[in-house]
Amino acid sequence: MSVSVLGVRHHGPGSARSLREELTRLKPDIVLIEGPPEADDLVGLAKDPELQPPVALLAHVPGESSKAAFWPFAVFSPEWQAIRHAVEADVPVRFCDMPAAHSLAPASEERDEEGNEEDDRAPAVRADPIGALAHAAGYDDPERWWEDAVEHRGDTPFQVIAEAMAAVREGHVPGEEEARREAFMRRAIRTAIRDGHERIVVVCGAWHVPALAGPPDAGSPGGAWGAGLPTAKADDALLRGLPKVKVETTWVPWTYGRLAAWSGYGAGVTSPGWYHHLFTAPDRPVERWLTEAAGTLRAEDLPVSSAHVIEAVRLARSLATLRGRPLAGLAEATEAVRAVLCEGDDLPVELVQRRMVVGERLGTVPDSTPMVPLQRHLRQEQRRVRLKPEALDREHDLDLRKPLDLERSRLLHRLRLLGVGWGTPKESRGKGTFRESWTLAWRPEFDIDLIEAGVWGTTVPAAAVARVHDLARGGQEKREVPLAVLTGLVEQCLLADLPDALPYVIEVLSEQAALDGDVTHLMAAFPAMVRAQRYGDVRATPAEGLAAVADAMLTRICLGFGGAAAGLDEDAARDLLKHVDAVHAAVTLLQDAPVPEGEDSPAARWLGALRGVSGRSGLPGVIEGRLTRLLLDAGNLEAGQVGAVMARAMSAGHPPARAAAWVEGFLSGGGLLLVHDSRLLALIDEWLTGLAPETFVDVLPLLRRTFGAFAAPERRSIGSRVRSLGTGEGPAMTGDAEEIDEERAAAATRTVLALLGRTEIA
């Protein structure tokens, strides 16, 4: 019986290549791999050609999305190669790390056999073993040392690595979690021995080798395993009483972007795309890499020739020689790309970094993988609408007049209701409500979201309907849902084509709108309701009841607007102003809506309400100014009337701050009005120039905010018009005339008199 513990670097291509060779030499009858034992039954899926890395084992606690963990595998991961070797050789594979049932369980107080709480002992801080070895070898970069010592070698010296790790761990006191993990690994080895296996191979992180194989000088070759290691009794005592939860496991697609160290995964690598290249192209890797980089740049229409590639290869090799490296590594290749292929420009270098060094690969899992029904149905829907999950952000412009694009839109909106943000809507490039633009990017954590959303139904539409019902009634707590949220749900139901959910939401909305006495709540909810009507029309989705609810909401808004607008402080007035603009924009969308005979149109009712409120006293200046502008733009006020209103608002009877707020509200729709109406411009100029210096300083910030919002051409045009005031091109400016310098004017005066035949001034 033999136990071979092979220490590897997680996601190390050199380790992966050497491991396959070592497994072929050892011919094990069982392989133990660092990972969650709950996934033992999933190993057989590695035979399926549709299980393509990068993939990850997902362990999660049902019903608790925050309690989940991933174990990612790339094609260059030693653990993946161990799995592939075992399934191809029909050799049993078991995972031997701490079970996820324990690692995902909530922490609990540990007690000794007598029931007393154990003393807390701060574990020694574990130094980076790779960093320690790199430092001993004279390297300041652990990644570069590992590449030189392991990845660029023809083989991985497993015995040397084990001895090096034993030296690094000398005097190390494992932390509590680390000690338990290693105890579970030793327990798995003992179980394999009891099961009668003769040639056991353990594949684990190099750090754990001394804890699983014992000291390098322990026992004799071919002797019994376990010399110098903790006993089974000691390990059982350490593992007794651990908290435990029920977990489920499955395979999920992974991405190289998530595998990179910056993604937060502790055992990640900074350059998964480079490591993939090293594993799949062992011969002439630098030449192949730079050739591929040239192809990537050419795809973006950047001029890169074969001569560039040849010079880049020469530069990379020269840099490696100068630095004493056995082979040009990623650093040398990147510098060659920057200097030769990109001619010193960092922007295309970032493109190579994103697409090649990190990589955009997304793995796949077969249909036979354990999934909740919702996951399986989504896979079918993705095939039906021909939207393939991809790790790279990809933009899609949808024309909702086309059946396929309409189905895609509905699927993406349904997933957003379920909390699966595969698609992110963006502003459409085209005009009209029949176009949508999306950015699609698949993330591994979406599988967790789908698992959690599985409680709502087994298909995407059914789950979305159930989720909408739950949101409309306020969840399990039955809390009150704001009107704006309910109208947003109506809009989402129409976008997602959920006719089974829409009547229920409209019913809840109608009841709550009838009882809500806060006009601002109605104003906040009204625009979404109007948009919902529009979407219903464009998408040919039945939306009975929406028009009646929207009409009732507008009626209550018009009746209550006057009371809501009076007596507000500055902050509340500005908040109300946002609602006013939103309602006004929404009302314009109803211009083509049919109106029963004898009734006013929505626009007429709304403008009537604004006209009735605008002349009242007690209105904040910014509200009154904005209402005046809206009425003017709608043709409900003549320019002469506006001039009188503006003159009254800027009279000495009003504080300067209120007058400035009035100007802000009036001009918030744009400054072109002052370019075309010199009378209004003269009124503002007269008021502004008549302010006392200290008052001008007080209102300057508000005026600066008002005029600063105008486009630069508008500001230039207004300035030009101001200069023309008083020159005959506009109303005369008030104020004392500039004093005349008699001495400077004398020469010109004598010349004029001579021309007129006179010798003196009359």
Provide the descriptors you would attach to this structure in a database record.
762 residues; alpha/beta; four-stranded parallel sheet; three-stranded antiparallel sheet; 53% helix; elongated
Topology (SSEs and partners):
Blueprint: E1 2-8, H1 13-26, E2 30-33, E3 55-61, E4 64-73, H2 78-88, E5 93-95, H3 100-103, H4 129-136, H5 142-151, H6 158-168, H7 176-194, E6 199-205, H8 209-213, H9 232-239, E7 248-253, H10 256-259, H11 272-280, H12 285-299, H13 306-322, H14 330-341, H15 346-359, H16 373-384, E8 394-399, H17 403-417, E9 423-426, E10 435-440, H18 446-453, H19 460-472, H20 483-495, H21 502-515, H22 519-538, H23 546-565, H24 570-588, H25 602-614, H26 621-633, H27 639-649, H28 656-667, H29 672-676, H30 678-689, H31 693-708, H32 712-724, H33 742-756
Parallel strand pairs: 1-6, 2-5, 2-6
Antiparallel strand pairs: 3-4, 3-7, 8-10, 9-10
Helix pairs in contact: 1-2, 1-11, 4-5, 7-9, 11-15, 12-13, 12-14, 13-14, 14-15, 17-19, 19-20, 20-21, 20-22, 22-23, 22-24, 23-25, 24-26, 25-26, 26-27, 26-28, 27-30, 28-31
Number of helices: 33
Strand order of the largest sheet: 1-6-2-5
SSE class: alpha/beta
Overall pLDDT level = 82
Question: Roughly what percent helix?
Answer: 40-55%
Which stretches are low in confidence, meaning pLDDT under 50 for 5 or more residues running?
108-127, 218-222, 262-266, 728-738
Number of strands: 10
Gyration radius, in Å:
37 Å
Give the N-to-C terminal Cα separation.
133 Å
Identify the overall geometry: elongated
Largest sheet: 4 strands, parallel
Share in β-strands: 5-15%
InterPro entries: DUF5682, LolB
Protein name: DUF5682 family protein
